[in-house]
Design brief:
The complex is a heterotrimer of chains A (about 290), B (about 325) and C (about 250). Chain B has helices spanning about 1-10, 20-35, 40-65, 75-90, 95-120, 125-145, 145-150, 165-185, 190-200, 200-205, 210-235, 245-260, 265-280, 285-305, 310-325; strands spanning about 155, 240. In chain B, about 75% of the residues lie in helices and about 0% in strands. With about 325 residues, chain B is mainly alpha-helical. Chain C starts with a strand and ends in a 10-residue tail after the last helix. Classes of the chains: A mainly alpha (about 290), B mainly alpha (about 325), C alpha/beta (about 250). At the B-C interface, helix 1, helix 9 and helix 10 of B face helix 2, helix 3, helix 4 and helix 5 of C.
C-alpha cells in the first residue's frame, strides 16, 4: 500500500516537472513551428542562475527567483530574435542552431563553474507526511504545487486572454492572423519569453533536488521532445497528458524493476509510437 | 549534327575522373609524411583522433547531407560498433582485424533497424526517432552495467599496436578507405539518386526511383562506416565508454558537419580537422576557446550557412572569375 | 486488341467526399486523349490514382493487361506510365541535366548498365527535344516557370513511358511556348506515345486531342470527340452553369 502511494506522489512530481518543461517546448513548437532544442538549456541556465543568486550570493529567495526567471526570459528573447528568426523558414536550421546554442551555454557554464555537480540549498527545509504514509520533502512538494499552478495559469492565459487568443490564432493560421492585424513575430517573441521563463522556473525549483551540472540539459531534452511528439504537435492538452504518462511510467518501472530500466521507458515508448503512428498520438498537424 | 556536337562538348566530364582529386591526393601524401617531421606523441594521437572523426562525420553526411535523413543519433552507430569490438576483444580476445569489420556489421544492422521505421518519418519526428534510438542503446549499456562496465565502460580493449606511428598509419588507411569510398559513391550516379531523394521524395518516386530501398541502404552504409570507425577508435584508445553512445557525441557530429558544409563529404572532414586541432590549440586561452569553438557554429549558421568548405570554394571561384574578367580573357 | 489502359469502377473517397466516383474509361495504344472538367472535378486525383500516389477506395486499373492497383509509384513508372505534375516539382538544387539524369537511373533504364557519359548524352538529347539544352548546366532553381514546365516534360520522357500523363502542361505559359510544346506533344504522339492530357486551355487542347472525357464532381459526364464535347449540354452546364449555352457563341 505504501508503495502505491509513493508511486502516486513521486510520479506526480516527476510528471509535473516534465509537464512544466514540455508545455513551454510545445508552445513554441505549436505556434511558431520552432523546434527549440535549447529549451532545456534555458532550464539549465535558470538552475545555475538561482544557484548563483540564492545559494552562493545568499540573496532573498523571491529576488533570486525573479532574477533567474527574468534573465532567462531575456535570453530567450535574444535567442529568438537573433538566432531563430533569421532561420525560421528552415525547420532543420532552427534545430541545428538551437542545439548549437545549447552546447554553447553548456560550454560557458562548464568554463565558469566547472564540471562538478553543484548543490543548491533547498528553498524551505521541511518534510511532510502525505496521506500519513508517504514522506516527501518540501522542495519536491513545492515543485509539484508550483508546476500545477503555473500550468493552470498558462491554460487560462491562452484560452481566456487577448494575448492568448492571438497566440492561438497564429498557431492555427499565420497568414490569417496577419490579416487580423496580429504581428506574428511579436507573438513568437512573447511565446519564447513565456517558454524560457517556464523552463527557468522548472530549473530553479528542481535544481535543489537534482543539483546543477553543465550537462543537465541533455537528459530532459529527449524526454521533453518525446512528450510533445507523443501528445501531438500543437496540442497542449496532449503534451500534458503525455508528460503524465511518461512521468508515471518511468516512476513505476523504476520502483518495480530498476532505475536503469526506468530511463529506457520513455525512449522505448516513443520509438514504438513513431513506428506505428508517424504523427504522434493526438496531433493536429501532419509531419 | 553540328548542334549535337557542340552539345556534347559542353557536357560535364565525369566527376570521378582522377584529375578532379589532385588536391585530395596531395593532402593524403602530406598526411603520410607527417610522422617524418612530427615526433610528439601528443600531436600524432590528436591526428589519429582527427582521422577517426573524419569517418564519423563523412558517414553522417552521407545520410543527412546527401539523402536528407536528419540524424541526431549517430552515436548509435559509433557506439554500437565500438562496444561490439570492445565486447569481442575484452571477453573473447578476438583480434582487432575481426572485431572492427564485425563492429561495422553490427552497426549496419542497427542502421537497418533504424532505417525501416524511419521511412515514414520526416523533420522533427525523424530527428526525435534518431535521438531516441541512440538513447536506447545508451540506456541498455546502463541496464547491463555488469557487462558493459556502466559509466566507466570497458578498459583493457586490445590495442591495435604498441607503436603509435603504426597506429597513425592505420588511422590514415581507415580514413582514406572510408572517405574515399564515400566520395566515389556520392560522385557516381548513385549520388544523384540520393540527392533526388533529399530534394523531393515524391518527385524521385515519380522518376522511378525505389526510394525505400535507397533510404534503407544509406542507413546501412552510413551505419557500417561509422561502426567501423567507432570500433577502430575503441581499439586505438584501448577503451570503450559511454561517451561513444552519448547524445553529446551525436550533437558534435551534427555541429561539426554542418559547420564544414553538409552534402559535400569533404566539408565535414575539413571541419573535423580544423575544429579538433583548434580546440586543442586554444586550450591555453580557455575563454577564447569556449567562444570560438562552440560559438563558431552559431556564427557559421547565421552568416555562412552553406558551411566552411562550400563558402571557400565559392569565394575562390568568384575570385578566379573576377581575375579572368579583369585580365580580359 | 486489348486497350492499353482500362479503368473500371474507379473510386476514391476522402472522409465524406467522393473525389472520384464510379469512373470507367479506356485508352487505346497510340491515342491522345484529353481530360477536362472544372477545378476540383477530380482530374489530378485520377492521375494520382493511376500513378500509385493514391490508393483507390474501389475499382480496377489495368495497364498492359496487368492490374496496377496497390503498386508503388516507382513500380508503375517501371511498367511504363510517366507523369508531370500540375505544380512543377523540379529537384531545385540540382542542375537541369542532373534533373533529367535522375529518371535515367530507374531500374528500367539501368537494365543495360549505361555509363554516366552515355546517360548524359541521352539526357542532353531529351533536353534538346524540349529546347532546354542550352540551359542544361543551370540549377533548376534558376529557371523560369516556362522552362520548368518543359523540364517536367523532359523528365517524364526520360523514363521511356508507354503512357504519358500530362497535368496542365500549358498553365502559366505564353502563347509561343504553348505552341512549341503543343507541337512537341503532337510529335510524340505521332511517334507512337499514348498520351492523356489534363488542360484548362480548351482551345489548345481540342486542337491536339482526338478524344475528350469530361469530369465533374468526380464523375464522368461525357466522352467523345472534341466536336461532340463542345456541344454537350452537360459539359457546358458544368463549366458555365445552368443555361450556360447562351455563352457559347460558335
Amino acid at each position: 500500500m505504501v508503495s502505491f502511494l509513493e508511486i502516486l506522489v513521486y510520479g506526480a512530481v516527476q510528471s509535473s516537472v516534465y509537464a512544466m518543461l514540455a508545455v513551454g517546448f510545445s508552445l513554441i513548437f505549436g505556434v511558431a513551428g520552432v523546434v527549440n532544442l535549447a529549451h532545456t538549456a534555458f532550464y539549465m541556465v535558470g538552475a545555475y542562475l538561482i544557484y548563483t543568486a540564492f545559494s552562493v550570493s545568499g540573496l532573498n529567495l523571491i529576488l533570486s527567483l525573479v532574477i533567474s526567471v527574468v534573465l532567462t526570459g531575456i535570453l530567450g528573447l535574444l535567442v529568438q530574435h537573433l538566432c531563430v528568426r533569421p532561420l525560421i523558414r528552415s525547420e532543420y536550421s532552427v534545430m541545428i542552431i538551437t542545439v548549437a546554442l545549447a552546447m554553447f551555454f553548456q560550454e560557458v557554464l562548464l568554463s565558469t563553474f566547472g564540471p562538478v555537480d553543484r548543490n543548491l540549498t533547498n528553498f524551505y527545509e521541511a518534510t511532510y507526511r502525505l496521506f500519513g504514509m508517504v514522506t516527501i520533502d518540501a522542495q519536491r512538494l513545492l515543485t509539484l504545487l508550483v508546476a500545477i499552478f503555473l500550468i493552470i495559469c498558462l491554460w487560462l492565459f491562452i484560452k481566456r486572454t487577448k494575448f492568448g487568443r492571438a497566440i492561438q490564432a497564429v498557431a492555427q493560421d499565420r497568414e490569417g492572423a496577419v490579416f487580423m492585424g496580429i504581428n506574428p513575430n511579436r507573438v513568437y517573441l512573447q511565446v519564447m519569453f513565456i517558454s524560457a521563463c517556464l523552463a527557468a522556473i522548472a530549473g530553479a525549483f528542481i535544481a535543489p533536488t537534482l543539483g546543477a551540472r553543465p550537462h543537465m540539459w541533455e537528459h530532459p531534452l529527449v524526454r521533453v521532445f518525446i512528450c510533445v511528439v507523443l501528445g501531438g504537435l500543437g496540442s497542449l492538452e496532449g503534451t500534458i497528458l503525455a508528460a503524465i504518462i511518461i512521468g508515471y511510467t518511468e516512476v513505476i518501472v523504476a520502483f518495480m524493476l530498476s532505475a536503469y530500466l526506468g530511463e529506457l521507458v520513455a525512449v522505448a515508448i516513443i520509438l514504438f509510437v513513431l513506428t506505428v503512428r508517424p504523427t504522434g498520438l493526438m496531433g493536429r498537424r501532419a509531419a | 549534327m553540328d548542334r549535337l556536337h557542340s552539345l556534347e562538348e559542353s557536357l560535364p566530364s565525369s566527376p570521378l575522373h582522377w584529375k578532379r582529386f589532385r588536391v585530395h591526393f596531395a593532402i593524403i601524401i602530406f598526411l603520410l609524411f607527417i610522422p617524418a617531421f612530427v615526433k610528439s606523441i601528443y600531436v600524432i594521437d590528436l591526428l589519429i583522433v582527427c582521422n577517426v572523426w573524419a569517418v564519423f562525420l563523412s558517414s553522417w553526411d552521407l545520410l543527412t547531407g546527401y539523402t536528407g535523413q536528419i540524424s541526431f543519433g549517430h552515436s548509435l552507430f559509433i557506439g554500437g560498433g565500438a562496444y561490439t569490438a570492445g565486447f569481442l576483444s575484452f571477453y573473447l580476445g578476438v583480434p582487432f582485424w575481426v572485431t572492427i569489420p564485425l563492429g561495422g556489421c553490427v552497426a549496419a544492422i542497427l542502421g537497418f533497424g533504424l532505417g525501416m521505421p524511419a521511412l515514414r518519418l520526416k523533420g522533427p519526428y525523424l530527428a526525435l526517432a534518431t535521438f531516441a534510438a541512440s538513447a536506447v542503446l545508451h540506456g541498455l549499456s546502463a541496464v547491463f552495467w555488469e557487462y558493459s562496465g556502466g559509466e566507466d565502460g570497458l578498459y583493457g580493449v586490445a590495442p591495435l599496436t604498441r607503436d603509435y606511428v603504426v597506429k597513425y598509419y592505420w588511422s590514415v588507411i581507415l580514413m582514406v578507405l572510408c572517405s574515399g569510398f564515400l566520395l566515389f559513391l556520392v560522385n557516381s550516379q548513385y549520388g544523384l539518386i540520393l540527392k533526388s531523394i533529399r530534394e523531393d521524395e515524391s518527385g524521385a518516386e515519380a522518376s522511378g526511383i525505389n526510394v525505400t530501398k535507397y533510404k534503407v541502404l544509406t542507413f546501412v552504409m552510413s551505419g557500417f562506416l561509422a561502426g567501423v570507425a567507432g570500433a577502430f577508435y575503441g581499439h586505438a584508445q584501448m577503451h570503450v565508454g559511454t561517451d561513444l553512445l552519448s547524445l553529446h557525441l551525436s550533437i558534435m557530429v551534427v555541429l561539426m558537419s554542418v559547420a564544414g558544409g553538409m552534402g559535400t563529404i569533404v566539408g565535414p572532414i575539413v571541419a573535423g580537422y580544423l575544429l579538433i586541432l583548434l580546440n586543442e590549440w586554444l586550450r591555453v586561452i580557455e575563454v577564447v576557446r569556449v567562444l570560438i569553438y562552440s560559438f563558431s557554429v552559431v556564427l557559421i549558421l547565421l552568416f555562412i550557412p552553406k558551411g566552411i568548405v562550400p563558402t571557400i570554394i565559392s569565394g575562390v571561384e568568384a575570385l578566379i572569375n573576377k581575375m579572368k574578367f579583369q585580365s580580359g580573357s | 486488341m486489348d486497350a492499353l489502359l482500362q479503368v473500371e469502377g474507379l473510386a476514391k473517397r476522402f472522409g465524406g467526399l467522393d473525389a472520384v466516383f464510379d469512373l470507367d474509361f479506356t485508352v487505346e495504344a497510340g491515342e491522345i486523349m484529353g481530360m477536362i472538367g472544372p477545378n476540383g472535378a477530380g482530374k489530378t486525383t485520377v492521375f494520382n490514382l493511376l500513378t500509385g500516389f493514391l490508393e483507390p477506395t474501389k475499382g480496377d486499373i489495368t495497364f498492359k493487361g496487368e492490374n496496377i492497383v496497390n503498386r508503388k509509384p516507382n513500380q508503375i513508372v517501371d511498367r511504363g506510365i510517366s507523369r508531370t505534375f500540375q505544380i512543377v516539382r523540379p529537384f531545385l538544387n540540382m542542375t537541369v541535366l542532373e534533373n533529367v539524369l535522375v529518371p535515367l537511373q530507374a531500374p528500367k533504364n539501368r537494365k543495360v548498365n549505361k555509363g554516366r557519359m552515355e546517360n548524359q548524352r541521352r539526357a542532353a538529347g531529351l533536353l534538346e527535344q524540349v529546347e532546354l539544352a542550352d540551359k542544361m548546366l543551370l540549377l533548376a532553381a534558376d529557371l523560369s516557370h516556362g522552362d520548368l514546365k518543359r523540364l517536367e516534360v523532359a523528365r517524364s520522357l526520360a523514363a521511356k513511358p508507354d503512357l504519358l500523363l500530362l497535368d496542365e502542361p500549358f498553365s502559366g505559359l505564353a502563347t509561343k511556348e504553348i505552341s512549341a510544346l503543343s507541337d512537341l506533344i503532337k510529335n510524340l504522339n505521332d511517334d507512337g506515345l499514348t498520351i492523356i492530357l489534363i488542360e484548362h486551355k480548351l482551345r489548345e487542347l481540342m486542337k491536339l486531342v482526338k478524344r475528350v472525357i469530361t469530369l465533374n464532381f468526380g464523375v464522368k459526364i461525357a466522352d467523345g470527340t472534341p466536336e461532340e464535347i463542345a456541344k454537350n449540354e452537360a459539359v457546358i452546364e458544368a463549366y458555365l452553369g445552368k443555361g450556360g449555352e447562351r455563352f457559347v457563341t460558335s
